[in-house]
């Protein structure tokens, strides 16, 4: 059979697409280096794991895995609606919140229009935009020496990038990998200044970790901005990254529209059951927030002791400035049994992003870092 040029056949956006680079799995490092003790602080997962109630609920769902899941996600949508104070029709469930972000991209982006987002923003915005054949208009971020928000979203620069062909604006609050955040007043002013026909994705994947008094809850703005969709996830604070479940909240009209491109049965039955149970376990959420707070203090103190600069973060991760190309340090840390995340693909080649772990994991990382420096 003769070979065909499959790349040449691909849609233009796909031809040059660089896929998402996930954190290195523990198994892979074990196979490569034969290390026995490995600490993975690379994918902003919850080091406490999931709530025991969620694990039990997922296990309980396994007896029915020969059946398709509830496509409507009735119980999960009811539970979310009640907890968030919205109507079930305002919710779109996703296989992770990235699935919902993809649904927005596929609903509104195509060749000839553009999406606006910040430099150093979550990597999937660029990938989904490009996959749809749309143009990315990347706004420069705030400078690295900005006093409050180094490399954070610059809302003025973002507003400047919006033109008559802009269909979507992506905002991560807080942003990954910078951990920077936007206060209520500035973000609301930005939303008010946008044309009504621009859809805004406000990505709140890490919102539960944030305790800043000026940090906004995007859900409060939904009645005022019918062009707004807030996305959240069970992957982070709820520790369900492996089951893939997240959601978007918007006006019923916008939620209904993007649901047209939702893959059938996109949230599996174990994920739905676990997510309902996780929502009910507020004790686990509180414990996870507390572990994060203590761990952040531990990592920040460790960086200061090593004379390293870092970006002050309100998420469950910290991006540390190594003051030089971070790639060799990433490799050296692997050999010490520590997996962190290089962020050169985010335009931050000097930084390593470290997820807040358990106290002993943070200590293991800091020891290894000291050694490799
Ligand atoms: C800012 C941000 N948004 C969205 C996601 C997507 O998470 P998930 O698809 O697991 O919900 C992540 C994951 O790392 C993230 O950092």
Q: Can you walk me through this structure?
A:
There is one protein chain. The protein is 38% helix and 15% strand. It has 14 helices and 13 strands. The strands form three sheets. Strands 2-8-7-6-5-3-4 form a seven-stranded mixed sheet, sandwiched between helices. Strands 9-10-13-12 form a four-stranded antiparallel sheet, with helices on one face. Strands 1-11 form a two-stranded parallel sheet. Helix 4 (52-61) runs antiparallel to helix 11 (269-280), helix 6 runs parallel beside helix 7 (124-131) and helix 12 (282-305) packs parallel to helix 14 (359-372). The model has no long low-confidence stretch (mean pLDDT 96). The structure holds pyridoxal-5'-phosphate. Pyridoxal-5'-phosphate is lined by residues 44, 96-98, 122, 172, 176, 203, 205, 233, 235, 241, 246. The site of pyridoxal-5'-phosphate has 13 residues, from helix 6.
In brief, what are we looking at here?
With 373 residues, the protein is of the alpha/beta class. It has helices at residues 6-9, 12-15, 26-33, 52-61, 74-84, 97-108, 124-131, 155-161, 184-193, 252-259, 269-280, 282-305, 327-335, 359-372; strands at residues 39-40, 91-94, 114-118, 135-139, 166-172, 199-203, 228-233, 246-250, 309-311, 317-321, 338-339, 341-342, 351-355.
Strand content: 15-25%
Major β-sheet, in short? 7 strands, mixed
Radius of gyration computed on alpha carbons:
21 Å
Mean pLDDT: 96
Uncertain runs with pLDDT below 50, 5 residues or more? none
Shape: globular
Backbone structural class:
alpha/beta
Order of helices and strands: HHHEHHEHEHEHEHEEEHHHEEHEEEH
> CA-to-CA gap between the ends?
53 Å
**Which hetero ligands occur in this complex?**
pyridoxal-5'-phosphate
Helix amount: 25-40%
Strand order of the largest sheet: 2-8-7-6-5-3-4
Number of DSSP helices? 14
- Number of E strands: 13
């Amino acid at each position: 059979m003769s070979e065909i040029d499959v790349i040449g056949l691909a849609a233009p956006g796909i031809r040059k697409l660089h896929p998402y680079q996930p954190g290195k799995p523990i198994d892979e490092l074990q196979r490569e280096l034969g290390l026995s003790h490995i600490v993975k602080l690379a994918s902003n997962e919850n080091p406490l794991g999931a709530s025991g109630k969620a694990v039990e609920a997922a296990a309980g769902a396994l007896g029915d895995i020969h059946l398709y899941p509830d496509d409507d996600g009735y119980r999960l949508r009811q539970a979310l609606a009640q907890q968030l104070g919205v109507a079930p029709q305002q919710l779109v469930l996703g296989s992770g919140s990235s699935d919902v972000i993809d649904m927005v991209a596929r609903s509104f982006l195509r060749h000839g229009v553009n999406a606006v987002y910040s430099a150093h923003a979550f990597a999937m915005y660029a990938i989904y935009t490009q996959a749809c054949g749309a143009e990315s208009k990347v706004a420069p971020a705030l400078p690295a020496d900005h006093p409050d928000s180094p490399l954070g979203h610059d809302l003025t620069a973002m507003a400047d990038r919006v033109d008559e062909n802009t269909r979507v604006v992506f905002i991560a609050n807080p942003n990954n990998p910078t951990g920077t955040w936007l206060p209520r007043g500035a973000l609301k002013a930005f939303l008010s200044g946008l044309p009504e026909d621009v859809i805004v994705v406000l990505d709140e994947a890490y919102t539960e970790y944030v305790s800043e008094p000026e940090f906004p809850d995007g859900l409060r703005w939904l009645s005022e901005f019918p062009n707004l969709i807030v996305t959240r996830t069970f992957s982070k604070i709820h520790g369900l990254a492996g089951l893939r479940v997240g959601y978007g909240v918007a006006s019923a009209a916008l939620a209904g529209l993007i649901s047209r491109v939702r893959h059938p049965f996109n949230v599996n039955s174990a994920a739905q059951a676990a997510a309902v149970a996780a929502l009910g376990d507020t004790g686990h959420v509180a414990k996870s927030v507390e572990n994060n707070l203590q761990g952040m203090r531990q990592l920040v103190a460790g960086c200061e002791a090593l004379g390293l600069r870092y970006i002050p973060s309100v998420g469950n991760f910290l991006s540390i400035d190594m003051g030089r190309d971070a790639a060799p340090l990433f490799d050296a840390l692997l050999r010490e049994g520590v997996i962190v995340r290089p962020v050169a693909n985010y335009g931050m080649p000097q930084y390593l992003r470290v997820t807040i772990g358990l106290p002993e994991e943070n200590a293991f990382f800091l020891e290894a870092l000291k050694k490799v420096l």
